[in-house]
Amino acid sequence: MANAFYGQSGGPAAVFNSTAVAVIETAREYPGIFDRVYVGRNGILGALHENLIDITDESAESLNALAHTPGAAFGSCRHKLQNPNVEHDEYQRLIDVFQAHDIRFFFYNGGGDSQDTTRKIAHAAELVGYDLTCIGIPKTIDNNLPATDCCPGFGSAAKYVAVSALEASFDVASMHQTSTKVFVMEVMGRQNGWIAAASALACDERGLGPDIVLVPEIAFEREKFLEKVKQVVAKKGFCVVVTAEGIRDSDGNYLSVVETQDAFGHGQLGGVAPRLVEDIKTAFNYKCHWSVCDYLQRAARHIASQTDIDQARAVGKAAVEYAVKGLQSVMPAIVRTQSVPYQWHIEPVHISQVVGGEKNMPRQYMSKDGFRLTQAGRDYFAPLIAGEAYPPYEAGLPHYSSHRFRLVERKLPEYFGGTTQRRIAEPV
Amino acid sequence: MANAFYGQSGGPAAVFNSTAVAVIETAREYPGIFDRVYVGRNGILGALHENLIDITDESAESLNALAHTPGAAFGSCRHKLQNPNVEHDEYQRLIDVFQAHDIRFFFYNGGGDSQDTTRKIAHAAELVGYDLTCIGIPKTIDNNLPATDCCPGFGSAAKYVAVSALEASFDVASMHQTSTKVFVMEVMGRQNGWIAAASALACDERGLGPDIVLVPEIAFEREKFLEKVKQVVAKKGFCVVVTAEGIRDSDGNYLSVVETQDAFGHGQLGGVAPRLVEDIKTAFNYKCHWSVCDYLQRAARHIASQTDIDQARAVGKAAVEYAVKGLQSVMPAIVRTQSVPYQWHIEPVHISQVVGGEKNMPRQYMSKDGFRLTQAGRDYFAPLIAGEAYPPYEAGLPHYSSHRFRLVERKLPEYFGGTTQRRIAEPV
């Protein structure tokens, strides 16, 4: 019998806490294996600084409330661990903390960088002969992890953007005759178009939803794009565009990158949507509107996908069961066996299959001209947004939990190394 | 027995069609008074161009589907009627169309400019001795109509921004230690801070929701704002800002106005949120994120307020009943008799009380420093977002109606006057 550590890492998601709760609940089902379940405050930083929450005896009521709360209930972080070939003090500290609290199970929940953290820690523990079962758990709204069909967090972001694009298209359709002709909605996706493409689930034969989708995997050609906008406006009177934030031209240059400075020396105020709108206005003088979803799309628990929640729970449960079975350095992956009707299950994949790679959206999910979702794309995305899972409401607002957890007493001296919070390079 | 005309005007709202359906259903309850109910395609433009939809026999199923669909199902418009002291041909044409179709009841649904349309038409009909009962019906997410406690459309927009600000605050709280410190969310409101202020309903003693709200009614002071951001970040580690698009400095200059051109000669890409973020970054070098809600906030039927829907239906019903009673040139206003528990009813006000004015948010709804909602503000806003009213879903998306209605046969020659669609001056 030993203790377990669980940490949340990377950008939050609407269903992040569903996974956390599944880990905690499943661990409780094995009292002969897990004594205490500790959660790191702010992920791996919680382990480094011995900021541990003992969640073992948390009430079912509290956990239920957590499960339908967006964000990362225990705090998340972006912290890139040292290069183990160069520095070792962070790893030594982690092992010290784990040893001090008899932690023999390490569960780490996040995207690609977080899986890398798990891999590094497993390696470090092995090197020093510390027995530590390490299990990665997937989560990223970017949906770009290799070796899994999709990622928890993505389905809810996809549902949010599809619903938003659908609703916006009704708005623009309503008065394009005397007002806005083009609406541009910007969604997340620095490297991949998964989220942007999913918004096109709102398209149907009625001409609603986005008319044009722009994804980073397909080089942005300004003239071709403007021509398409013009065609759509000529045909139906208005045009709805959804763009990923990370679209690039054929030389690989981001459209959103600061290119110039204004007269005050300010960098240009980013955002791809206003940039596209500027181009459209300049070309055609159409009245345009634009929105930038930003964090709203990944925090929107109010419109979460039930499928996403089911999968978020399933990976949490499977992670603990893998540990119980003695698997090492694996991640529960979502395997799709059928799209219509949707069938899936969870299987372990070795974490080395997940780290380092990034899964782009297949080209065949987009039409030849690069602007529309194909049936293959629709088949992939559709099941991931299926089902509604409303949080409870109180006085007109979702009743989200914001419990502050108490930290367990520290057993080690304060840690001063690794306090420089090295941020994983991330475009602003 | 005669026919009725109903038109939708101005920016759409999540509950616009609820009012339309209430008008149609209520008119059917008086078959001895209303023969046919015609709806103008694109509001008053439908009357001018004789683009009329006969909605009288529309199925209950179709109307029910319409009632939970965002946008303006029959098309809306921004069309400023002629100055009746200078030009008359539009009014003559309208009377011609009304006469040709035996229209003796005119219902017009919209904001301040739309009420002005109703007033002008009533005046024109009176001048030429054409018997026409004119009733205005309120709708505007801006909530700025005088003589009514609130406006249909506002409550749902308010609920959307409060939920979004709440959810975003969970996201930012989750990883401010190693990532974003300040999040700025931009909402609508050129002249008034009603929507921005309502987002602060998400604030509570737990430190969630927006920390700072910026409204147009209170002059923006950059230094004071930056100081407040700094204080909030110092105290709780992160700061969530909600700003109305129309905030101005003490000289009345909009922050969002294009001030400069970049090296390519493009105007600066607007949006107040990125502008504020630029200031914050320059001052403190905090990592910031921003979002612009734009149309999403007024189209978000998926998170509509039940109170708003109830009131949207109530004003539609009352409008028809006022016409039946023989009232002239009135608008059903929402009267609040109590905030806790919320009590309201509908009363007629003369349309001259509504036209021309604009209702700013009372100063006492905001704290002395201008950044927070007071209890008085909370008491006003809270009931307006109460209750959820989810649309039905199909395959993960709201099942919205996009029925195309057939136009009735024209009786008059085509109209060529008034085709210059004079747009009501509106900042882009």
Strand order of the largest sheet of chain A: 3-2-1-4-5
Biggest chain-to-chain interface with counts: A-B, 90 and 89 residues
How many separate helices of chain A? 12
Strand content bin of chain A: 15-25%
- Given as residue ranges, the uncertain stretches of chain A (5+ residues, pLDDT < 50) are 259-268, 419-428
Topology of chain A as a string of helices (H) and strands (E): EHEHEHHEHEHEHEHEHEHHEEHEE
Q: What is the terminal separation of chain A in angstroms?
A: 45 Å
The oligomeric state of the chains shown is homodimer
The best one-word shape of chain A is elongated
Number of strands of chain A: 13
The helix fraction of chain A, in percent, is 25-40%
Can you give the mean pLDDT of chain A?
93
Main beta sheet of chain A, described? 5 strands, mixed
Account of the 3D structure:
The structure is a homodimer of 428-residue chains. Chain A is of the alpha/beta class and 428 residues long. Chain A is built from 12 helices and 13 strands. In chain A, the strands form 4 sheets. A 5-stranded mixed beta sheet of chain A has the order 3-2-1-4-5, sandwiched between helices. In chain A, strands 7-8-6-9 form a 4-stranded parallel beta sheet, with helices on both faces. In chain A, α1 (16-28) links the parallel β1 and β2. At the A-B interface, α6, α9, β9, α10 and β13 of A face α6, α9, β9, α10 and β13 of B.
